[in-house]
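User: Design a sequence. Structure:
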């Protein structure tokens, strides 16, 4: 309803907004308390979120305690380089980040995808955006049928509109159902998703010359992102950058839902 305000004359829009806010006041996406405006967090939820950024590992985005210089990598990426070139997340996985992800994925609060995309924009790689392509992590067709939507695809669409970068929600497909990864260790996760993705279409190099921005909601071990990246590289992608809403920190034992 609020999105329709832009088609209403300004004076009428102002009065309508007052009435709507009175009947349906904007609420904090995290806890539901009344807040000043749409997509605003209350102070308690805001203070409970850990935003991620520099200084961090140039590859996986794990935060560093201090600036270690350009192109610095963490020990894990040096020992076992991932398939993705770069991964960035808006938040460290915690109570608020989990709540938003679950409301979107299982509560069908698809309006939260716009909030997530707006926070992701600051992590879009620098460079020629005409060479970039946004691609969501796909769901298997049976899971898509059961859920009714792919939350990563909705986020991808919003990010495309906000950034001006092209998006393709069909180019990457999941070829088989994979078991829920929650509770699995890193090795088991990699085995479960190995070979589970491929590119659609007959063109052998549909991504030639493109820098792909892969979209997911939660980054846990990176197994899914790596499996997607392997398929994207086979299609000719120059690079693959993962953007996600939240990531589980390696020092925690918490598992994403």
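Assistant: Done.
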């Amino acid at each position: 309803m609020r999105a329709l305000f832009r088609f209403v004359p300004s004076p009428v829009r102002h009065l309508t907004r007052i009435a709507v806010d009175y009947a349906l006041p904007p609420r904090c996406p995290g806890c539901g308390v009344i807040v000043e405006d749409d997509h605003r967090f209350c102070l308690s939820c805001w203070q409970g979120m850990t935003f991620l950024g520099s200084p961090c590992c140039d590859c996986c985005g794990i935060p560093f305690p201090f600036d270690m210089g350009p192109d610095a990598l963490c020990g894990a990426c040096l020992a076992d380089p991932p398939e993705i070139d770069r991964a960035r997340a808006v938040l460290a996985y915690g109570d608020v980040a989990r709540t938003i992800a679950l409301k979107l994925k299982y509560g069908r609060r698809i309006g939260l995808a716009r909030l997530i995309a707006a926070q992701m924009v600051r992590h879009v790689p620098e460079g020629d955006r005409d060479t970039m392509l946004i691609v969501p992590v796909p769901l298997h067709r049976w899971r898509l049928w059961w859920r009714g939507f792919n939350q990563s695809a909705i986020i991808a669409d919003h990010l495309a509109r906000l950034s001006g970068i092209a998006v393709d929600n069909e180019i990457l497909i999941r070829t088989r159902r994979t078991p829920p990864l929650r509770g699995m260790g890193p090795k088991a996760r990699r085995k479960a998703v190995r070979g589970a993705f491929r590119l659609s279409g007959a063109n052998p190099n549909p991504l030639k010359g493109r820098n792909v921005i892969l979209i997911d909601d939660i980054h846990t071990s990176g197994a899914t992102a790596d499996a997607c990246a392997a398929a994207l590289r086979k299609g000719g992608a120059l690079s693959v950058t993962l953007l996600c809403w939240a990531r589980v920190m390696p020092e925690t034992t918490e598992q994403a839902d």
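The radius of gyration is 19 Å. Residues 17-22 have pLDDT under 50 and may be disordered.
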